[in-house]
Design goal:
Chain lengths: ~325, ~325
């Protein structure tokens, strides 16, 4: 009689319904493009041509692993480290750079900068720089999927810091009681700006909180895009089967500082060294070379393609004009 | 014409708009329990109770609005909007702009406020001007059942986030509502009484206060014009300026505190654009810079009363006589 249903405990299928393993070479190339994009941004900032920015260097695997498991109908909400999610979704790096540089050809006409990029044509509804904003809106996007009988699910990326916000609990709770098709992806990169996760939470991770809210969850190695992809497909299959949300926690690490420039003087050196040894890009590349799935020549070709893409992207962004002064007050109201 | 209360007018507007547009839905704490008629007519998917969590209610509305629905949320009392401030101000209000116009946020936020129930400051806080100050939001605060119905309909059809504040004291006030009440445009003030000597600008329950004061002033031979703003953003600047150009005197009356309130904006507008018309200083009669008390006499003392409006107007007339 009411819409306020109590959740059944969701059961996670051991195998995805429709397993389509991620092509590991394609995954490697996408991760390399994301890395190159962020390094380009850092360089542009260093030369005073772009504002400082939050990068997700070292976190490319959850972006590529999860986004490659989505279909064209699915929608994405994400946080201030969204470049990887956008690029994994096929965003044009030139239009992204143009956005960060405040140019007219950016996805949002230069009004969002790096911290709020959305791209309707890609189904990226929100980059929230209010930590937890993506969690607050995701339920509404899930609600519109169900009420409008849209086939897509919602992928909501957030950090371990956002899991300390009340909205994390509010969002999962509502998604569970309203049966909303949301894949919550916590990129636990161990850091919350300048504070280590161990200082702010007694638990060793985030996934453990899901059960109390009636949400199924899984933890995955967030530095392995293939493992993330499989976990995401399994989770999405569970969402489709049970019509309930799912929380996937990807354990990963932010290899650079919070906001460029950042000398990381506050970071424990041993921890950094440990995680540098698990950098997802060399890790996958070594594995593919060992398995004979990638030759040195292949790798060189990929590197050249990525370099050419970023050169073209930078040239495009450079050539794009700034918005006219009239844009200051357009699109405030419908 | 039918006679109905403000509360019924809001429900009637909701029902009509939900019939018109299948993407309209309403949710909030107790909404499905209290709005039984809506639940029965439109079903549990479109009339929903929610957990007690104003932030996620507002965030859910913003996310739903961005992706094809037209949610109405009832956040109960205006002070509770503090829990939803981020979603209303930072998301609903800003994301159309930040997205370069890619996404829009057609949603309505309902909240009650004002003296009358003795509920004290955590239920009664006329905080409407906070939202007037926030870009991307529209704010209405009507005073009659007909306006509630017409403006509620417009608010639901509007492609922007609209906050509709309902003065608690007006909830059970009956009034005439045309059967075929059409949507009333946002940003149009209502001229409640024509006059030539002084302009009284107000909204919500103090419109009635101004009308009572105007009757008393008429007995003294002072002819007051009363403007009901109805919509605080967009603000009907033309209506205010037109009236002041005629009367040369302005008193702004509202229950919200004075500092940076709507009255400050109206006064500044007139100072900037109609200074030459002014024959006396602009006055504001408002609530004090204090939380709203529960005690009935104190609660009433918070709100400008008709005799204070009369005295204020008389002081302006004296001013002119003295000069
Ligand atoms: C509401 C809010 N509080 C604080 C900040 C400042 N801030 C930006 S990012 C960040 C850390 C967020 O940590 P986490 O969610 O783990 O994401 P990460 O930065 O590690 O990717 C903080 C505190 C903010 N942007 N929004």
């Amino acid at each position: 009689m009411t819409a306020f249903l109590s959740p059944d405990p969701a059961v996670l299928d051991p195998a995805p319904l429709d397993p389509a393993p991620l092509d590991p070479v394609a995954a490697l190339e996408r991760m390399m493009l994301i890395r190159a994009y962020e390094e380009t941004l850092i360089d542009l900032h260093g030369r005073g041509r772009a504002a400082g920015t939050c990068t997700a260097v070292g976190q490319e695997a959850p972006a590529v692993g999860v986004v490659s498991a989505l279909t064209a109908d699915d929608l994405i909400l994400t946080n201030h480290r969204s470049a990887g999610h956008l690029l994994a979704r096929g965003a044009d790096p030139g239009r992204m750079l143009a956005e960060v540089m405040g140019k007219r050809d950016g996805y949002c006409g230069g009004k969002s900068g790096s911290l709020h990029i959305s791209a309707k044509e890609l189904g990226v509804v929100l980059t929230s720089t209010i930590v937890g904003g993506e969690l607050a809106l995701a339920t509404g996007v899930g609600l519109s999927r169900t009420m409008l009988k849209q086939p897509g699910i919602v992928a909501c990326f957030f950090g371990d810091g956002a899991a300390c916000e009340g909205r994390f609990h509010e969002s999962l709770n509502l998604a569970a009681v309203w049966n909303l098709p949301i894949l919550y992806v916590c990129e636990n990169n161990q850091w919350q700006a300048f504070v280590h996760r161990q200082e702010t939470m007694a638990a060793d991770g985030i996934a453990g909180q899901a059960a109390a809210l009636g949400v199924a969850s899984a933890v995955v190695d967030g530095n392995d895009p293939l493992a993330v992809h499989d976990a995401a497909r399994t989770a999405i299959a569970a969402i489709r089967r049970t019509a309930k949300p799912f929380l996937l926690e990807a354990k990963t690490y932010r290899l650079r500082g919070h906001f460029e420039p950042d000398d990381q003087s506050y970071v424990d050196k041993a921890e950094l060294v440990h995680w540098r040894g698990r950098d997802p890009i060399p890790r996958l590349r070594d594995r593919l070379e060992r398995d004979g799935r990638l030759t040195a020549a292949d790798a060189a070709r990929i590197e050249a393609r990525v370099r050419a893409t970023m050169e073209a992207a930078t040239a495009f962004a450079d050539a794009s004009p700034y918005p006219g002064a009239d844009a200051l007050t357009t699109d405030v109201y419908a | 014409m039918t006679t109905m209360t403000v509360n019924d007018a809001i429900s009637a507007a909701l029902a009509e708009e939900m019939r018109r547009d299948p993407t309209v839905l309403i949710f909030g704490e107790g909404v499905a329990t209290k709005r039984r008629d809506l639940l029965e007519e439109f079903g549990a998917a479109r009339v929903r109770n929610t957990p007690l969590a104003e932030g996620i209610i507002a965030g859910t509305a913003a996310g739903a609005a961005a992706t094809g629905l037209r949610p109405v949320i009832d956040l109960l009392f205006a002070p509770f909007l503090c829990y939803a401030m981020d979603e209303i101000v930072n998301s609903a209000g800003k994301l159309r702009y930040l997205s370069g116009g890619q996404f829009q946020f057609p949603m309505v936020v309902l909240a009650m406020t004002g003296a009358g129930w003795g509920v004290g400051a955590q239920h009664n806080h006329n905080n409407e001007s906070w939202f007037v100050h926030s870009p991307g939001l529209k704010i209405v605060m009507p005073s009659t059942p007909a306006d509630f119905k017409g403006l509620m309909k417009t608010a639901i059809r509007d492609d922007n986030p609209v906050l509709v504040f309902a003065d608690i004291a007006l909830g059970y006030t009956p009034g005439e509502v045309p059967e075929d009440a059409e949507a009333i445009p946002l940003g149009k003030a209502a001229l409640r009484r024509e006059g030539t000597d002084v302009t009284l600008v107000s909204y919500a329950k103090t419109v009635g206060t101004c009308l009572q004061a105007a009757d008393a002033l008429a007995a003294d031979g002072i002819d007051a014009e009363v403007i009901d703003l109805r919509s605080l953003k967009p603000l009907d600047e033309a209506a205010i300026l037109r009236s002041v150009a005629k009367t040369g005197r302005l008193v702004v009356v509202h229950e919200a505190s004075r500092l940076c309130g709507v009255g400050a904006e109206v006064a500044a507008l007139v100072a900037e654009k109609a200074f030459a018309s002014l024959r006396a200083p602009v006055l504001r009669l408002t609530g004090p810079d204090a939380p709203a008390p529960a005690s009935f006499p104190l609660e009433q003392a918070f709100v400008p009363q008709p005799d204070a409006v009369v005295a204020a107007v008389q002081s302006l007339m004296l001013d002119v006589v003295a000069a």
